[in-house]
Task: structure prediction
Amino acid sequence: MLLVAFWTVAAAAQVVPLKAANWQFKPGIVEFGDSAEVARMKIDSSSGFVVLKGFDFSDGTIEFDEIPTDGDFASMYFRWQDRNEAECFYFRTRKGAGKPYAMDGVQYTPVIKGTMCWDILPQYQTNAVFSRTAVSHVKLVVSGRQMRVYVGGGSGAAASRPVLEVPQLEGNTTHGTLAFAGQAIISNLVLRPGKVEGLSPEPGPDPVANDPRYLRHWLVTEPDSLPKGIDFSYALVPAAGTTWEPIDAERMGVINLSRRYAAARSHRIVWLKTTIHADQARTYQLRLGFLDEVWMYLNDKLLYVDKNFFSQGIAKVPNGRLSLENATVSLPLRQGDNVLRIAVGSNFYTWAIVARLDDLDGITIERTADGR
Result:
């Protein structure tokens, strides 16, 4: 009860005790101690989470000093419900430590149904000055659906300008505790609940909200497993009695399948379909982003097959992440209704598509998933 009472102090700065009694963790992954009279939490293992007990954070400021010693990722989670639902900011040390112009040095991602959705959201990464041997001061300002991130050099030295601005936090959670993961040394962890520095809680504008060319409304099947050793099979094409449910695009026109379907480490596909009506026969260009695999049918004829695997030779620009730069597909539309179906495969982290026609001259696309 003392912990709960401590965390309910309203709006005042709260110094978080970096002592073992205040945190939940697996034995052997973290050490607590003092250095130069400053309490420190040293995470020695990249396996497991260190979770703050008895705390519930929604909006405000989170500040801490960190030496991100991990060889890959040093992560800080907020609004943490559990390892399946949270928001996450992290140093990507292999890419960005000592490389001030690396565009993926620091990143934000939501954790949705146990999946880190980083590759769906390439816009939420940037460069920052940090190293694996020196202290960086991190400050997160969280207000409703928005966040600003500051990374400065040295203990308590907050940057004057944010390195990363997130106009819409994408996670499912609105409150929760804090957690850390990845090898790091944490000190001077201070929380200021309610202090949002004038940042609006409302989402920032969606830059493509007024672009009518995006295919935003689809029908989707339930996931189906691909047999081991099989890349694709015509037997997986939906039968006449298949159940289809509406699914609509999120911000930036993205059909985020990871939000609907929990993560699995098996090879799976789902099918999407939508209808495009053309006044006359004509070929249109479709810009397509996808993760990880697609098999596209137009009017029951196989039209396009491709794969987009992160950090593999087949990775599409930008480095296997979701983008309209991934592919351009020619759609030879016939006069009247044209049924576009896409099987989307996943065998890694996430799955999603984003699709936009170059123009709508002479065609009509569905305004809702059920065709209305």
Residues 1-10 have pLDDT under 50 and may be disordered.
